Amino acid sequence: MINSEHGLKPSVQDKKRLLVLTSSYPFDKSDGRAAAGFFVKDFITLISSLSEVTVITQNIEKETSISQEDKVSVIRFPWSGKSRPLSTLRLPQDFFLILSVIFSGISASIKHIRKNKTDHIIAMWAIPSGVWALFMKYFFNIPYTVWCLGSDVWNYQNSYFPRAILRLILKNANTVYADGFELRDTIKRIACINCTYLPSSRNFKKPIKHLSLKPEGVRHYLFVGRFHPNKGPDILIKAIHLLPKEIRSNIHCHMFGGGPLTNELKLLIKEFQLESSITLGDFIGEEKLIELLDAADVIVIPSRKDTISLMVSAALQINKSIIATDVGDMGYVLKKYLAGRTVPAESAEAFAQAIEQDLLSSNEYAHGRSELLELIDLSKSVATMLEDISLKNKK
After folding, report:
1. Are residues 145 and 169 in contact, defined by beta-carbon separation less than 8 angstroms?
2. How far is 147 from 7, CA to CA, in rounded Å?
3. What are the extents of the domains in the chain?
4. Helix axis angle, 233-242 relative to 348-360, nearest 10°?
5. Alpha helix locations (H) across the chain?
């Protein structure tokens, strides 16, 4: 248990009042756009058993809403982008939408803090949530922690002005975490600060009902993620195109998500005549995701750039085979623990070969998956963060 192992049994008086600022939080269980938001929700559910937690995030409606979800208060503020995923915003074309979410987040945070005692702020992720947290430190002298996920750093590290803001956010944080070793080293290089590896993962429950994926009698491969170049869904489609026809007749790939590559992926499937081999779907909610994970045979992660994908955590907990590219820390941990097949990044040919090998020896990595699962236990991440917050706030 978190409490006994780490000495974190707070009394009612000692409970920290935490404010979590995040751009990733599900509107409900069917909100597939939330992506990493379901991990945030799992994390907050655990941390709320030991602290008083309020979450501030953007709304898809025109007005501010305040709700109580179990022990957690959730404040959703309006912004100009409404249901637009923040991960799709780009400079310079989305400049005013970016300003909208930044200033609306700052305003909502100020209103809450003026009315409620706040001991510590957790920003998930560096941008935009870290911007909100930085202003709260300047206005109210409230310490904050930043947990970096990957895209919040990679998307801004090579542009002068965004990189300067990123450095300012990281340098002013009490503690900075990264959910990958390579990301940790990138942050150290950008901001010249200490950064600690803290794995992100999900807590998956057993599905309420069991799906029977179609077609029957084949091995089912599952991709869930943003349709974005970093996630490599186009590489996966090209890999399936390269498979011999007799191999393709024994597999089916299910792809769920959304993003800037959606139309390109549809055109690729049509061009390669893969309609009978690939199902391309929209964002899916939590219940559907759990059902698909339970029904699929293999989780595929063809990323060009990634830390340790949350889909690795999903595959480990549901005990499914993994095929992933050797990028960031994902390839490192899969190879170290012999937990899944790894292939070079951006190689459709190598990914196709890995699928063929998987068909020949499907149970090859079962033991390694159970060992790796212990490394990315979410309850350990919660305990580490709470302990660091408690120690830093006493200084």
Report:
1. no
2. 23
3. 2-201+377-394, 219-375
4. 60
5. 2-6, 37-47, 95-115, 129-140, 151-154, 160-172, 181-191, 233-242, 245-248, 262-271, 286-295, 310-318, 330-336, 348-360, 366-375, 378-394
d(CA 140, CA 118): 10
164 neighbors 191 (Cβ within 8 angstroms): no
Dist CA 357 CA 343 (whole Å): 12
Closest CA to 313 of 69, 8, 43, 20: 43
String of DSSP letters for 101-159: HHHHHHHHHHHHHHHS--SEEEEESTTTHHHHHHHHHHHH---EEEEE-SHHHHTTTTS
pLDDT tens-digit profile of 280-332?
999 888 888 889 999 999 999 999 988 788 899 889 988 899 999 999 788 88
Question: Cβ distance 207 to 291 under 8 Å?
Answer: yes
**Which residue(s) pair with 19 in the sheet?**
54, 121
CB 304 within 8 A of CB 318: no
SS3 333: helix
Residue 257 contacts residue 226 (beta carbons within 8 Å):
yes
Give the separation between CA 201 and CA 313, rounded to whole angstroms. 5
- Between CA 181 and CA 308 the distance in angstroms is 9
Those residues of the chain that have pLDDT short of 50 are: 1-8, 10-13
Domain 2-201+377-394 shares a fold with domain 219-375: yes
Which DSSP letter does residue 218 get? Answer: S
219-375: CATH, from 3.40.1000.10, 3.40.50.2000, 3.30.450.40, 3.40.50.300: 3.40.50.2000
Q: What is the pLDDT of residue 5?
A: 41
Q: Is domain 2-201+377-394 classified as CATH 3.40.50.2000?
A: yes
CB atoms within 10 A of CB 259: 20
